[in-house]
Amino acid sequence: MLNDALAAVTLLVDPTTLVALLAGVVVGTIIGVLPGLGPSIAIALALPFTLNMSLGPSVALLMGLYCTSIYGGSVAAILLNVPGTPASAATCFDGYPMARRGDGDLAIGITTIGSAMGGMFSIVILAFLAPFLARFALRFGPLEMFLVGVFALCCVAIIERAILVKAVAAGLVGMALASIGQDPASGDMRLTFGYFPLAAGIPLVPLLMGLFAISEVMMRVAEYGRGPAEGTLARIGFRVPGLHFWRSAWRTVAKSSLIGIVLGILPGAGPTAASFISYSEAKRSSKDPDSFGKGNPEGILASEAANNAVTGGALVPSLSLGIPGDPITAMILAALVLQGVTPGPRLYTEHMDQVLLILFSLFIANIGILVAGGFGARLFTRVLRLPEPLLLAGVVVLASVGTFAGNNSAFDLVIMAAAGFLGWGLRVLGFPLAPLIIGYVLAPMVEVNFKQALIVYGTDPVVFLERPVAAALLVMILGVLLYPTIARAVGGMRRRIASR
């Protein structure tokens, strides 16, 4: 083990490897900040360069891009209400309100530290529990994945208790949007109304750009003259909350990191679903859920810890079993194979030096997040000094370029504009956007796994006795749905006992 560690460190301290890692951190952060781009594009652009690199520099470049491109998306989400990556969409809910009231520096500080902590947490899991967790993840068949999606959707029904009907309606709208296009089972077209461009469905990036960026521009144009919140321009930089905040926030970090790791291990879930599920859970368990969406720092922390913890989680099945957790790790896996790394159980016994090289690179890349946030925050937050008309025009341009660059499709711009009007209308009428996005992200996973579960298991309830993980998830769902009723009943009993 010591010899393997020394071999990994020797590769890592090579000047070429360090330069590649630095390039990955810097370029990854920039790509993450640019709306519509993200880790998939960052890794895809880097793949041709890795073919001419040795193992150390190629691994360092990929790990640096992977970690920081997810983090970079939060900067645009906080400062402009434009999610740089889909995984940062949940950060908009509380990050942008904080920036508007003058706490943009604090929001970036929390995002940076939360991202690094989530990434570090996942590295520990990847290092010590990867083989065990990979085997455990294989127990998640279509039934378990369906129940995970249902559990997340049920959380939507209780986290917006004050506007329950509107929250459920928004969630249904999101699920309806996700169902547009080709049926995954039969291949039939749904809700396309004979319009061929809709056959591929509603892309996620244009939808996010429209719902958040364009709708925000429309809201700001309608309110033009009022200007940003008092104090927004006064605080530029990077601010870390005090110890009193972390005394309670560490629970949010731990819980969100675990959610991110588990969803990273599960194929097809990814950082976007992890961030929304963690955000929902943080709001559900908060003592002040009504403050979420208005600038609650724990909302940012939950989202960012989860989506960055996915990085290590997604590498668990990739390295242990050779099964990529998502499209991003599939590209990373391909690059590693081209470098002579053979994923699978033997990797941990015969080539531990390669595993340690990946872990060390991930560790330094997460430190790079802290460096990028600390030194780049003053540059990032100077965007708040721009005149509002110029800032709004820049948001529209960035959103349009990022949307078009994804598929080189003008139709995506039409989707973005339509989503902008939809988001503006929902916000004017008081409908929350979070349930809509959660419904859109989770609906395909729920539908596909539900149909597969029916094919494999039928309708026999005995299957829950044969699959304990599914039974545990079912109990959790029932607990979430019945919790408000039980809480009211218990509260009524206590009041009656107290009045006697």
Give me some keywords for this one:
500 residues, two-stranded antiparallel ribbon, mainly alpha, 20 helices
CA radius of gyration: 23 Å
Give the strand tally. Answer: 2
- State the secondary-structure class: mainly alpha
**Count of helical regions:** 20
Main sheet specs: 2 strands, antiparallel
Mean pLDDT: 78
H and E order: HHHHHHHHEEHHHHHHHHHHHH
The helix content is over 70%
Give the strand content: under 5%
Keywords: Membrane, Transmembrane, Transmembrane helix
Transmembrane segments: 20-47, 59-80, 106-134, 146-173, 193-214, 257-279, 328-348, 355-377, 389-406, 413-442, 469-490
Pfam families: TctA
Protein name: Tripartite tricarboxylate transporter permease
If you had to describe this structure to a student in words, what would you say it looks like?
The protein is mainly α and 500 residues long. It has one domain. It is 75% helix and 1% strand. The chain contains 20 helices and 2 strands. A two-stranded antiparallel ribbon has the order 1-2. Strand 1 and strand 2 form a beta hairpin. Helix 10 packs across helix 11. The N and C termini lie far apart (68 Å). About 2% of the residues have low confidence.
Topology:
Elements: H1 2-12, H2 15-33, H3 39-50, H4 55-80, H5 89-100, H6 104-137, H7 142-159, H8 164-178, E1 181-182, E2 189-190, H9 204-222, H10 243-265, H11 270-285, H12 297-320, H13 327-338, H14 347-350, H15 352-381, H16 388-407, H17 410-429, H18 434-457, H19 463-466, H20 468-499
Antiparallel strand pairs: 1-2
Helix pairs in contact: 1-15, 2-4, 2-15, 3-4, 3-13, 4-5, 4-6, 4-12, 4-13, 4-15, 5-6, 5-12, 6-10, 6-12, 6-15, 7-8, 7-11, 7-18, 7-20, 8-18, 9-16, 9-17, 10-11, 10-12, 11-12, 11-18, 16-17
